[in-house]
## 1
Amino acid sequence: MPCDSALAGCDNEDRLKLDELMALCTTLQNRVLDLEKTKTTLHNEIASLKRRVKKLEKKDSRLQRASRRNERMDDVRRIEEEVDLDFLSDAHNRTGPVESGDSCEMKVKLERGAT
């Protein structure tokens, strides 16, 4: 078995230690490569998740704005109903039972003119 020029004077024990160290070095290099691949994969997954979170946050923001808009519209409708009910209640107190259409308005106008 030929001996490398750098290892010309080495005995078998030193040769075994060198072989073990070379195998260990190769194993460690492979582990480093695997860890770098894992790191790249995780980096890509994190970037993907960040994009997804940003997209969901935008969607949530739009939904919150729509919800607030709907709440405001509900408030407006509720106020309009209260105003309508107040008006109808006042009209009923002035003219008796409320009738539909122009005749109701006419009774209110006549009642106001009579007082």
Note: The chain has two helices and no strands.
## 2
Amino acid sequence: MVRRRRSQAGLTLIELAIVLLIVGLLALMATPLTSSWGASADLHTAGGQLNQAYAHARAAALRNAGGAKGEEGAARIVLDPQVRELRVCTLAADNCQKVLWRSALPVGVELSVLGGAFPINLNNLGLLDAPVSVQLAKGGMTDVHILQ
């Protein structure tokens, strides 16, 4: 009696483990690339929020609801680090209690004024005393926005 061997179709456990190892290594190599995309997108979002805050502050300063005269401050951009939020308010002694505009910053993005600090004040003509450079940073990436 002659016995025939059955041919087996499929993968062995070792072949499957090798395929999973290769897929895992490829995913591991792609992680730094995709994380830099996320950091870049967050910096871009924060830069847009900063530009929006500046536009809203200029509009508020030109409306001059507080009645500032001459070169007096009329509006300001404030960074609240506790809730990670940019705010625009009129320049009064209320410590920014009446917020005209606000936006939460993306998680992990740090803002700092180069050569100065927040708040950024605008006079009743909607102008800054001098151009202001704001540095945005996240995950080793930086971007500098100049407000003028």
Note: The chain has a mean pLDDT of 87.
